[in-house]
Amino acid sequence: MAVPLERVQVIGDRPVRPGATHVLYWMIAARRPRHNFALDHALDHARALGLPLLVLEPLRAGYAWASDRMHRFVLDGMAANAAAFAAAGVTYYPYVEPAPGAGRGLLAALADRAALVVTDLQPGFFQPRMVAAAAARLDVRVEQVDSTGLLPLSAHGRAFATAAAFRWHWQKILGAHLTMPAAAPLARLPASVRDAAIPGEVVRRWPAATAALLAGEGLDRLPIDHHVRPVDYRGGVDAAEATLAAFVRARLPRYADERSEPSADAQSNLSPYLHFGHLGAHAAAEAVWRTVAWTPAVIVGHRATGSRDGWWGLPRAAEAFMDELFTWRELGYGFCHHRADYDRYESLPAWALATLDAHAADPRPHRYTLAELETAATHDPLWNAAQRELVATGRIHNYLRMVWGKKILEWSPSPRAALAALIELNNKYAVDGRDPNSYSGIFWTLGRFDRPWGPERTIFGTVRYMSSENTARKLQVKPYLARWSAQPALL
Which of 94, 115, 90, 110 is nearest to 195 (CA)? Predict the structure, then answer.
């Protein structure tokens, strides 16, 4: 089945090159061999042209917050991809930069003999600028494919200010857009798409990553931050699908009622895999739908209600998960896609800017430097525990992540300083940092996707207030504190 046209954008509008030797898939965001519209599209071109497919998956050295933690998670994914493509006979070229800028010219060299280049759409971070620059520079057709979510970003139309407004929008149109990517696109491939040849000069100048490097050997020799250590869970499509299966089997039934409890272990733990493209939203949704034999045909013709609950016709726990996976995640992706200023203070809604600026000079009972925050050296045991969890595991329990952000706003010299600290700590340590959905969480702390709340308070104004004390009264935090209070602040 052809990839829906609304998911494909021509960004290098040149003819398909005649006499080419391959089709090139530049894999930069949907880093997986399954449930991937971009891979489907590249394979469709390869079949139609009778040319082999060459998959290039690069890993830069000079991106912001590059560290052992982020690199190792991506390398895990590259190792899994290498095995999957090798089993299918598709040429896969993993390249890991030994130094910033060392990979410059590799894409152009592989595109020089390509009929066209297919790549991923990823709003946010450096990818949009990188893809636009490459498309302008290459003398070959470049097509960018959206595999980001259930609703194509082109169908959003605009950046929505609230989840409620986005629900009204997607409930009107989603039924027309639920084409699914192939679950097993590498099965039964024709011989014509296999075994692309890589020019010898490319191999000599830009050697492919070895199996040892993909396994993490030599990570300490790369010019990245070695203080942020790898997490104890693995990246890659196989680990992602195992995590998804474990969630659906053991935690999904408790998700609606217990996901806010820090010690209940009812979260999905899927965010790092969604961020790095090791898991697609379609695969996550289908795994949940299969548990109740639900299909997208159920919602064809459904009337929009704007309701958070009941619209899908799924059990309550599955409805709650779909609202997180779809409404909240894709709300953030759409905002990044339509607002280039998504990571700037000025992108906050007007009411939030006004109230935060009005209270920017309010006295702060506690002020902490970035170093004190990073080392969990505050007076608040619950906040310190959350920061230690972030440093140690690359994530914070979802509810406590909101409290963590609110306290940084309260303890920073100004709202702008709070935003800078939130971005730095989150993007440095969270495995899902730098993601559009991660920026949603950061900016929600300051009022994005929210509304004014009374009563008006010092520091917060009418931005929603949260505290560790209220959280301790509402939730069972003692086991969480017992687990993380004794952990070192830094690894």
Answer: 90
Going by the DSSP 8-state scheme, the letter that residue 392 receives in this structure is: H
Q: Give the chain's domains with CATH numbers.
A: 1-147 (3.40.50.620), 237-338 (1.25.40.80), 345-484 (1.10.579.10)
Q: For the chain, how big is the Rg over CA atoms in Å? A: 23
| 259: DSSP letter | T
Tens-digit pLDDT profile for residues 6-26: 999 999 899 999 999 999 999
CA distances from 480 to 193, 263, 381 (A): 52, 6, 11
For the record, the structure tokens of 480 come out as 């969480």
Asked if residue 241 lies in contact with residue 279, where contact means CB atoms within 8 angstroms, the answer is: yes
CA 270-273-277 angle, to 5 degrees, is 135
Element (H, E) at 23: strand 22-26
Q: Whole-angstrom Cα distance, residue 84 to residue 184?
A: 11
Work out the burial of residue 477: count CB atoms within 10 Å of its CB; fewer than 13 is exposed, 13-18 middle, 19 or more buried.
buried
Say what the pLDDT of residue 52 is. 98
The two tokens of residue 350 are: 């007007």
Question: Does the N-terminal peptide bond of residue 455 adopt cis geometry, omega within 30 degrees of 0?
Answer: yes
pLDDT in tens, 236-294: 999 999 999 999 999 999 999 999 999 899 999 999 999 999 999 999 999 999 999 99
Give, in order, the Cα–Cα distances in Å from 325 to each of 35, 38, 285: 16, 20, 8
Indicate whether 489 pLDDT > 60: no
